[in-house]
Amino acid sequence: MSGARRSIATTDQTLALLGSGGANRGRPVDVVGGGIAGLATALAFGRIGAEVTVHEQAPELTEVGAGLQVTPNGARVLDGLGLAEVASRRGIRADAVEPRDALTGRPVTRFDLRKLSGPPYRFFHRYDLIDMLAEGCRAAGVTIRTGQRIEPLGDRPVDRADGALLIGADGLHSVLRPLLNEPAEPFFTGQVAWRATVAVESPPVARIWMAPGRHVVTYPLHGGRLNIVAVREQADWAAEGWHHLDDPANLQAVFADTAPELRAILGAVTSVNLWGLFRHPVAQRWHNDDTAIMGDAAHPTLPFLAQGANLALEDAYVLARCCDTFSDLPTALARYQALRRNRVARAIGAANANAVNYHLAGMQRRVAHLGLKGLGILAPRAFLGRMDWLYGHDVTARV
User: Fold this and answer.
1) Is 290 exposed, middle or buried (0-12, 13-18, 19+ CB in 10 A)?
2) What domains does the chain contain, in order, with CATH numbers?
3) Catalytic site residue 391?
4) How far apart are CA 225 and CA 244, in angstroms?
5) For a surface tag, which of 33, 94, 244, 293 has the fewest beta carbons within 10 Å of its beta carbon?
6) What is the gyration radius of the CA atoms in the chain, in angstroms?
7) One of 219, 317, 358, 391 is an active-site residue; which one?
8) What predicted TM-score, i.e. pTM, was given to this entire model?
9) Do 352 and 302 meet the contact criterion of CB atoms below 8 Å apart?
10) For residue 194, how many C-alpha atoms fall within 13 Å in the half-sphere facing its CB?
11) For residue range 268-320, what is the model confidence (pLDDT) as tens digits?
12) How far apart are CA 131 and CA 306, in angstroms?
C-alpha cells in the first residue's frame, strides 16, 4: 500500500489480494456502512484485489426481525460474488406471487415465479443475507470494523491514503450524501408501515393482501416464521425509520374488517415496528473524484417493489467493476453513475405506482382485480414479461 493508511480504527490489517485484479488490485477502499449495501460493495471490491475496510457504527453486524426478497436481478449479483451455493441454503425459493382480496381472503390471481429465467427468486431473513455477505467479505480479506461512528469532518469524514476510494453505503441518513449534494428534504407520503414476524407456517408464496387504502405483504422465512409488512394511508405524520415500536393492537385494528385468515395472522403479532414512509429524491451527484455513494444513500425507494436490497446489490457490482476497468477514479465513478441512475429512477417510479395500485377502492378496485384475474388466466407469462426489464437485468454481463 502506498503512503500511510490512516482511518478511524486503531490498527490496520494486511489484506489478502484475491483474484487477478485490474485497476482495483491493491487499491485502498473505505466503505462506510456494514449493512447489505456496504458488505456487498466490500465483497465486490475485495474479490478483485482491493484492500477494503468496512466502517460500521453498530457494535456488531446484526439485523433482526425482518425479511426481504432477492429477485433474479439481485440473485445474479450474489452468484457473481461466489455466493450461489450458500444463497440456496439460506434462502427459501419462491414459488409464486399471489395478489389477494384482503376483505374476502380470495386469491385474485397467481403468477408462477418458477418460470422466471435466471437464478431463483428467494425469500431471506435480513440477518442471513448480512451474515453470508460478511462471511464472504472475511474470506476475501476484507477488514470489518464495528463501533466506528463516522462524523462529517469537512469534506473528508475518513482520513485516507493517497488514491483511496471512499464509498458511502450508509443508508437514508448518509454522512456522505450531503458532501456531494445540496440538502433535499424528504416528504411524508401519507402512508405508514408496520413490520413484524410471527410463528406461522406458510407455503413459499408472496401474498399481497389488498384492501381500500391499505395492504399487507406476507411471505415465509426459515424457522417457521412469516414476514409481515403492512401499510395504510393516514394523514397523521409518523417518524421515519422502522425501529420505532408500536402496539400490535393498532395494526390489528386497522385490518379488523379483513378476512379471517389475515386477521389470524395479524392477531399472532406480539411485537411490531412502525415507520412513516417518506419519499426521497434520487441524488443528483453520486460521486466526486474519490468518493461515491450507493444504495439508499443515493436512491432510497419505497417498499412496494421489493427492490431496495436488489438495487444495492446491483450498485455494488457495477461500482466495483467500473473501478476495476478504469484506473482513473473520476472516470470510473462517472461511468458508474451513468450506468445506474436511469435504472434506479425507473424502479423507484414503479414502486411509487404500486403504492397506489395496492390501495384502490370502489369501481377502480373491481376493474383492477378483474384485469389481474384475466391476466393470470389468459396470459400468465405476460405479467412476467412485463417485469423482464427489472428481473431479467444482469449487471454481471453489462459493465
Assistant:
1) middle
2) 192-277 (3.30.9.30)
3) no
4) 21
5) 244
6) 21
7) 219
8) 0.89
9) yes
10) 28
11) 999 999 999 998 899 999 999 999 999 999 999 998 999 999 999 999 999 99
12) 20
